[in-house]
Write a structure and sequence with these properties.
Number of helices: 13
Strand content: under 5%
CATH superfamily of one domain: Type II secretion system (T2SS), domain F
Shape: elongated
CATH topology of one domain: Receptor-associated Protein
Order of helices and strands: HHHHHHHHHHHHH
Low-confidence stretches: 17-22, 29-38
């Protein structure tokens, strides 16, 4: 085991030095192309950082890059420590952990965005009732929205205040609400925006319409809850089936290490692992697709 570890570490260090020398030589001969590539990477980081601003998550491209580098280092360090301690079989797993660390900040930020959208979804009916009560009390539509932005918590309050700020700078209220709908990507809120735009152009009773929309949304949420309860078993089966090969693999590793080590230390084993991961991911995807039912 020690000899194998020494050989793997030696090969890894040799590869690092080799690729470092190649990169230095390549840098001398193609400075302009490297500058262009760095500029493209910087632009992609800036675009990704700006995409989070729609969810009021403010992060600079430099901070995003630093998070990726730190996560890769931490995950790779855990993999190396586990490998030398004999916990993780094969240094190939260290590479996978490092790759996971690269995408971990993006996954974490996307999860924050998803939680914010879920909280926004839960506040739509309260927003409709608050605006409807304000209109019944004699407030204008803009004043009713302002009242809702004060009474409701974030993220609804943030979005309504931002919409009102756009409107105060000269953007029409309809365009501001449409922009808010595009940011949140919520079907229920899009229904609200369409009703507001149509009623303001053709006329109608907004409080009554909001009451009808609120009741429709509650019925849809109740139906979605029933569907989630009925398909919960299928979703759990997908998770169980997806995790079972890895659980069995770790169990065999701790019970009979010699039998399973070729799976992590030989090219054929790596190929079989890749095939297993791909087939496992496909099975998980198809099961989730079957049990996912959307209500339009």
């Amino acid at each position: 085991m020690i000899t194998l570890s020494f050989i793997l570490v030696f090969l890894t260090v040799s590869m690092i030095v080799f690729f470092a020398l190649i990169s230095m030589e390549f840098r001398k001969t193609s400075v302009k192309s490297r500058k262009k590539s760095d500029s493209n990477k910087s632009d992609s980081l800036e675009i990704e950082a700006r995409s989070y601003e729609n969810s009021f998550i403010f992060i600079t491209p430099e901070e995003l890059k630093a998070r990726r580098q730190n996560a890769m280092f931490i995950f790779a360090a855990i993999g190396m420590l586990g490998f030398f301690a004999g916990i993780f079989p094969g240094i190939f797993l260290t590479f996978l952990l490092s790759l996971t660390g690269y995408y971990f900040p993006k996954f974490n930020l996307n999860r924050q965005m998803e939680k914010r959208r879920e909280a926004f979804q839960a506040q739509i009916t309260d927003m409709l009732e608050t605006i409807s009560n304000g209109l019944k009390a004699g407030l204008s539509f803009v004043q009713a929205i302002e009242s809702a932005s004060v009474q409701l918590p974030d993220p609804m309050a943030q979005e309504l205040k931002y919409t009102l700020a756009q409107n105060s700078l000269g953007v029409s209220l309809d365009d501001s609400l449409i922009a808010m709908s595009k940011r949140m990507k919520n079907d229920n809120f899009s229904l609200f925006v369409s009703a507001v735009s149509t009623t303001r152009q053709l006329g109608g009773n907004l409080p009554e319409i909001f009451t009808i929309i609120s009741a429709t949304i509650r019925e849809r949420e109740a139906m979605e809850g029933k569907i989630d309860a009925l398909t919960a078993q299928g979703r759990m089966q997908a998770i169980f089936i997806g995790a079972m090969p890895f659980i069995l693999m770790m169990g065999i590793y701790f019970l009979d290490k010699k039998t399973i080590m070729p799976l992590f230390t030989t090219p054929i084993g790596w190929m079989l692992l890749l095939i297993m991961v791909v087939l496992n991911a496909l099975g998980f995807f198809f099961i989730r697709k079957i049990v996912s039912i959307e209500i339009n």
